[in-house]
Design a protein that fits this description.
This protein is mainly alpha-helical and 167 residues long. It has helices at 2-19, 21-55, 86-153; strands spanning 65-73, 79-84. The longest helix has 68 residues, at 86-153. The relative contact order is 0.05.
């Protein structure tokens, strides 16, 4: 009986964890990010690499430096020397920068502008409601003051219960 209760509470806790907004948002972001990676890689291979290829080679992975000679592959197929594959690092850095730029300019910036507009509309609505409330209050005060002034001009009234002058 106790183990069943514990099992139900663990499952209920797990379900609550999964249904929290940030977990679902994170899962959606990962899936979209994975699909978006293919687009960015295509842009790098199809556009950026050829532009870099105009200067050197299309394949950035061939850029490397040898720290300890001789660099290459010996007769048994084992690599010799110590190579720094800075072309691969450059390729990854360009991919990251392109990804960040596309995410910022196509997702973050438009969403920030949209949210700013929504916030401005909300503040404008609240400002109009607040102005209306203040205006109504001012009108009611003016009516009260006019009635008090009118009562004073008419001699103050009798103030007897049931009369129109009693407030």
């Amino acid at each position: 009986m106790v183990s069943e209760k514990k099992k139900e509470s663990v499952l209920a806790g797990f379900k609550a964890f999964l249904m929290r907004g940030n977990v679902v948002d994170l899962a959606v972001a990962v899936v979209i990010g994975a699909a978006f990676t293919n687009i960015v890689n295509s842009i790098v291979k199809g556009i950026i690499s050829p532009l870099v290829g105009a200067i050197g080679t299309k394949n950035l992975d061939v850029y490397k430096s040898c720290l300890k000679d001789p660099c290459g592959i010996d007769a048994s197929g084992q690599p010799t020397g110590v190579e720094v594959l800075w072309g691969s690092v450059l390729n990854a850095a360009l991919t990251f920068l392109i990804t960040a730029a596309v995410v910022y300019f196509l997702m973050v910036l438009p969403m920030a502008k949209y949210l700013a507009k929504v916030e401005a509309r909300r503040k404008a609505r609240e400002g109009v409601q607040e102005t209306m409330e203040i205006t109504e209050l001012e009108v009611l005060k003016d009516i009260r003051d006019a009635l008090v002034a009118q009562r004073g001009a008419n001699g103050g009234g009798t103030g007897a219960p049931g009369s129109r002058d009693a407030f």
